Amino acid sequence: MKLAIELIPIPTMNVNVRSHISSYRWRQLSLNVQRRDGYACVICGRRKGHEVHKLHCHEQWEFDEELGIQRLVDMISLCFQCHMIKHIGFADMQGWIEQYALIEHFCKVNEVEREQFAIHLDESVQQWIIRNRIDWTVDMSIYSQYG
User: Fold this and answer.
1) Helix, strand, coil percent values for the chain (each to nearest 5)
2) Are 7 and 130 in contact (CB under 8 A)?
3) CB–CB of 18/134 below 8 Å?
4) Environment class of residue 58 by beta-carbon count within 10 Å: exposed (0-12), middle (13-18) or buried (19+)?
5) CA–CA separation, 71 and 86 (whole Å)
6) What is the pLDDT of residues 25-43, one digit of tens each?
7) Distance, CA of 79 to CA of 49 (rounded, Å)
8) Which CA distances in Å does 20 have to 28, 64, 95, 98?
9) Secondary structure E strands in the chain
10) pTM
């Protein structure tokens, strides 16, 4: 699946690179990631200044549930819709975009029907519930390579 939901556990929801650096430094880091990614969403391919107005810098995490380590493994450029699907629960709570629009985008990018979206969402929520029971240690040491 090209585009997948990534629900961050509640205990670490606000732990991210952006909250640990200045807004200037975040903007520079984000621009470096966009440059590396050719100013395009790495998932759907829409280009900044063409199909989309701007790109978002998204943190990709790896979860070691046995050791309780949430590790930052990459930062990628995403369009708004792809980024909101990654954080669909948060996006829905904030009312930033109608869920039907996200479902349409998910289905188009992954070339699947709405039923597959529903299954994927349910699996993601079940995984999120399990991860919420873990006392996570967050490792963001990789972000320094984006300077």
Assistant:
1) 50, 20, 35
2) no
3) no
4) buried
5) 17
6) 999 999 999 999 999 999 9
7) 11
8) 14, 22, 26, 30
9) 56-64, 69-78, 137-139
10) 0.90
